Amino acid sequence: MRQHFYTLAGGIAAIALFTGILYAGASAIRDRESAATPELVLETPDMSDLESLPDTPEAGSDVPLDLGSQGGTAAGTGPADGSGPSDNATTETTARTIEPQQFGLPETVTSAPLERVEPRAPLSETDKEAKAAAGPTVLYRPVAVAAGVLQFDKLTLQIDGIEPEQADRTCESGGKSWPCGVVARTAFRNFLRARAVSCDMPQGNAGASATASCTLGGQDIATWLVDNGWAKPLAGSALEKRADAAREAKLGFYGDDPRDLNHRPMTFDDPTSGTGMDGLQPDL
Question: CATH for 135-254?
Answer without folding.
Answer: 2.40.50.90
